[in-house]
Write a structure and sequence with these properties.
The complex is a heterodimer of chains A (111) and B (112). Chain A is mainly β. Chain A contains no helices and 11 strands. In chain A, the strands form 2 sheets. In chain A, strands 2, 4, 5, 9, 10 and 11 form a 6-stranded mixed beta sheet that branches. Chain A has a 5-stranded antiparallel beta sheet with strand order 1-3-8-7-6, with no helix packed on it. Chain B has 112 residues and is an all-beta fold. Helices cover 0% and strands 49% of the residues of chain B. Chain B contains no helices and 10 strands. The chains are: A mainly beta (111), B mainly beta (112). The A-B interface holds A 2, 31, 33, 35, 40-45, 48, 88, 92, 97-99, 101-104 and B 4, 6, 31, 33, 35, 42-43, 45, 48, 50, 56, 59, 91, 93, 95, 98, 100-106, 108.
Chain lengths: 111, 112
Amino acid sequence: GEDVEQSLFLSVREGDSSVINCTYTDSSSTYLYWYKQEPGAGLQLLTYIFSNMDMKQDQRLTVLLNKKDKHLSLRIADTQTGDSAIYFCAESPPNDYKLSFGAGTTVTVRA
Amino acid sequence: GAGVSQSPSNKVTEKGKDVELRCDPISGHTALYWYRQSLGQGLEFLIYFQGNSAPDKSGLPSDRFSAERTGGSVSTLTIQRTQQEDSAVYLCASSFVTDTQYFGPGTRLTVL
């Protein structure tokens, strides 16, 4: 099974906030990432957070990290149709270069 | 600057044929990774190159898969005697040392 878990689907109305959740297993992971994949495209790095941070904000994106619960979330404010994509959570354990990905959350933005 | 590029973007082949997929990493990046994205399997690590060190091939699914990286830059992933279960999107990423990985657009492989 997946080491990193995400819900598979999220539907959100245009203009609302989207919240994508992720749980990971390796509490010693140093970095946690969010990637975005649009149809037919590769993975685009959206943002990342270092494990000693609780929150990171970047324009419409807010990442929250709860290390105790090993829970990571990505909030997209004022969701737009261009935000429709698959969002992958990934963890980077220390001394390991391999990223472990979740299965991806498909976000659909409806008018 | 230029990102990671991959070619071809799409490849359709017949079962049993060999295919080569190419990756051009970001200039100056020392590390190069191959991942595979299959329906129902998510993203799985295949192989990792770092500088002149021996590659980590632990993710390659069978001995039909091989990869090389020439001159510490361009990489080629070769799949011999392709099978239908090899159909997937093959993604390449590069990073400076083990810093953040940046991905290419991928090669969609379809084995008929």
